[in-house]
Amino acid sequence: MCYLNTHIDTRRADKLAELSGYLEKHQSEIVNYEQRHKVGKSICSGRMEKAVDSVIGQRQKRKGSSWRPLGSRALAVLKVVELNGLWQQTWFPEQAN
């Protein structure tokens, strides 16, 4: 916010005020990549994109496939249950103990 107030040309003060308001409102949701990097945390989305592709893409992008949102979500949930090793516990809880 300090940068905006000191380094941005204010010819469009209304737009600057709008941007400042948005950033202040959503400050807790904005990722500080510099801080994440300093503490050794990942700053890329490659792992997540690969996980999404393996969970959803491989099954649902088959040639000729067509999915409605509800069916797509249901299949994704089932795949995540399987990948997390919770299939037996989810479907056969009495046998899981």
Order of helices and strands: HHHHHHH
- Classify the beta-strand content into a percent band: under 5%
**What is the SS-derived class?**
mainly alpha
Our count of domains comes out at 2
Poorly predicted spans: none
Number of strands: 0
Put simply, the count of helices is 7
Overall, the morphology is elongated
> Helix amount, in percent?
55-70%
Task: Describe this structure as you would to a colleague.
- The structure is a single chain.
- The chain folds into two domains: 2-30, no CATH class; 46-96, no CATH class.
- 66% of the residues lie in helices and 0% in strands.
- By secondary structure, it is mainly alpha-helical.
Would you summarize the structure shown here?
The chain is mainly alpha-helical and 97 residues long. The chain contains 7 helices and no strands.
Helix-strand layout with pairing:
Blueprint: H1 2-7, H2 13-25, H3 33-38, H4 46-60, H5 69-83, H6 87-91, H7 93-96
Features:
97 residues; mainly alpha; elongated
